Amino acid sequence: MIASVALQGKNRSLAERLEEHRDSGPYPLHMPGHKRNTDLCKMGNPYGLDITEIEGFDDLHAPEGILKEGMERAARLYRADRSWYLINGSTAGILAGITALAKPGSSVLTARNCHRSVFHALLINRLDRENLMPDMLRENGIKVGGSCAICGTINKKVVEKHLEQNNNISLVVITSPTYEGVISDIPAIAEVCHAYGVPLMVDEAHGAHLGFGGFPDGALAGGADLVVQSLHKTLSAFTQTGLLHVQGNLADPEKVKQALDIYQTSSPSYILMAGIDTCLRKMEEDTGFICSWREMLDVFYEETKHLQNLQLLPAEGRDPSKLVILTAGTGHSGPELDSLLREQYGFELEMAAADYVIAMTGAGDRPEALHRFAEALKEIDRTWGEGKKRPDQEEKAEKRLPDRPEEPQKTLLTGRQKGFPESQNCPEQIYSLWEAQQLPGEVIPLDEAAVGRISLEFALPYPPGIPLLAPGERITLDSLEQLDKARRAGIPLRGLTDRTGKTIRVSRHRAR
Predict the structure, then answer these.
(1) Which of the listed residues 285, 312, 338 is the one where a domain comes to its end?
(2) Number of domains the chain is built from
(3) CATH code for the domain in which residue 71 is found
(4) Contact present, 290 and 213 (Cβ < 8 Å)
(5) Is 366 in contact with 289 (CB distance < 8 Å)?
(6) Residue 324 lies in a domain
(7) What per-residue confidence (pLDDT) applies to 499?
(8) What is the 3-class SS of 160-206, one letter each residue?
(9) What's the maximum distance between 2 C-alpha atoms anywhere in the chain?
(10) What residue numbers bound the domain in which 465 lies?
(11) pLDDT tens for residues 41-85?
(12) What pairs with residue 444 in β-bridges?
């Protein structure tokens, strides 16, 4: 009987499973931002709308009519000089932006917490990479998020130091907001970059709503030269849609257009483009739905401000739409909280790290759902009691934090502290990404014996898709500890040929 039920499940089509999930699945506290809320935006049956480039419907790669008008609408809304539709996701925009802006043979100053598509763009274009380390979020000198610390802001002084010391840097790439909603000081960073004549590219995939309805300003308002956004992550467009914007005189629109022609499909989906158009028209006509979403979040933060054991990352200095709940110190892990919220309370979260979870809200969320989520967290907070750390957690915390500042910090979002150097948690880069691709390799166990060897693979917990190891980097004990923490917490590791995460392909050569 059990086998028969399992077989029935396997025989169901993807469409049938999606319909079942729509009707009876848990509430989505994950992307896409429309949250399956059909009252937010309405379209007909997609089969009746699916066409190709026919008379009257324009051409994405040579827009002159309705698609050109839509992209001009996007530029007006976001106050860009020029904007393009992305129907291969933000990934296509990132690949195109780096291809267009970085000079051949140059270095790209790349925030270490960038998405893997940034690394792929460097590999494709044979560009050198210089690591830009973000600050770590801290409270009372201790990294927030437990052993899997959360990346904070990019420090403009660190950017300036890199640009001052390396005149071969032709582009700076950062992520803001981050997956956890941390927003860097884009105006200050842009000012530094422009003083050196270097363009600033911002991966704002998670921030297409910024600057609207009471949310903090986005990267374009801060002076970034090229900005990539996903419209599906927080707004109402379909998954796989986004926008690429340019402004100023450091980003050549024609080079950007040429690069987009390379990375975007030659058979663009009119259904996806219609979703973009519907989303932008709604924003142009009335941003009240974004204001309502922002007000819902204010209520949520007020309802959960007295949590005693779980900790909600404050909204100040961040995009408040990302609900980051910390479990470090409760005796429970992020995946435990994730499972509990799914199985007992009916919420599907965006992701679970070892010591925290992320619940993503969006324009399609409903007030009653966020209220129910707040009540669930308060009940779990009471159930988990005082949340004393397990002995092994205390021991690891002491080992990983040998130096603490004399005075405690007052906020979770301030900068690096004495005793935590910029290079911490960043493996040494021995070969460029494209050089590593040419090296002869061998497969070895991913254990202490791998320390000092040169990785030929990416190793990244997914989501969010930020590499803990990249090809050409020397494997460190710290990176092994982070990978082991992710593996034991049940977080999928991508990039490794061995899906179990027990082995890794390394260079046969010990070092350069």
Answers:
(1) 285
(2) 2
(3) 3.40.640.10
(4) yes
(5) no
(6) no
(7) 84
(8) HHHHHHCCCEEEEEEECCCCCCECCCHHHHHHHHHHCCCCEEEECCC
(9) 70
(10) 433-507
(11) 888 889 999 999 999 999 999 999 999 999 999 999 999 999 999
(12) 504
Low-confidence ranges of the chain (pLDDT < 50): 1-7, 140-142, 387-424
Sign of the torsion angle spanned by Cα atoms 446, 450, 452, 454: negative
- The token duo for 123 is 């590999």
Give pLDDT, residue 441: 95
Six-digit token pair at 239? 């998954």
Residue 406 lies inside a defined structural domain of this protein: no
pLDDT for residue 479: 86
Distance CA 44, CA 271 (A): 10
State whether residue 338 is helix, strand or coil.
Answer: helix
Q: What is the pLDDT of residue 9?
A: 58
Residue 377 tokens read as 């967290």
Alpha helices in 12-155 (DSSP H): 14-24, 66-78, 89-101, 116-125
81: number of CA atoms within 13 Å, CB side?
14
Give phi and psi for 289, each to the nearest 5. Answer: -70, -30
Question: In angstroms, what CA-CA distances link 160 with 54, 154, 178, 193, 224?
Answer: 50, 11, 21, 7, 16
For 142-160, the pLDDT digits (tens) are 456 555 568 899 999 999 9
Which of 242, 267, 285 marks a domain boundary? 285
* pLDDT of res. 461: 80
Q: What are phi and psi of 129, to 5 degrees?
A: -125, 135
SS3 content of the chain, % helix, strand, coil (to 5): 35, 15, 50
411: in domain: no
Q: Would you state the pLDDT for residue 493?
A: 84
- What length does the chain have? 512
Tokens of 3: 């086998």
How is the beta sheet containing 128-132 ordered, strand by strand?
A: 82-86, 242-246, 226-230, 200-203, 169-175, 107-111, 128-132
- List residues bridging with 110 in a β-sheet: 131, 173
Q: What is the CATH number of the domain that holds 461?
A: 3.90.100.10
Nearest to 499 by CA among 451, 454, 446, 452: 446
What is the residue type of 327?
Answer: T
CA angle 216, 326, 362 (to 5 degrees): 40
CB 323 within 8 A of CB 334: no
CB 213 within 8 A of CB 291: yes
- Full DSSP string of 273-331: HHHHHHHHHHHHH-THHHHHHHHHHHHHHHHTTT-SSSEEPPSTTB-TTEEEEE-TTTT
- Phi first, then psi, for residue 172 (nearest 5°) are -115, 130
ω into 408 cis (within 30 of 0): no
* Residues 73/280, Cβ–Cβ less than 8 Å: yes
Q: What is the spatial distance between Cα 162 and Cα 160, in angstroms, rounded to a whole number? A: 5
| 255, part of any domain | yes
Residue 395: predicted pLDDT = 43
Q: Strands of 298-456 (E only): list them.
A: 311-312, 322-326, 347-349, 351-352, 356-360, 441-445
Strand bridging mode 226-230 / 200-203: parallel
d(Cα 365, Cα 308) in Å, to the nearest integer? Answer: 26
Average predicted confidence (pLDDT) for the chain:
87
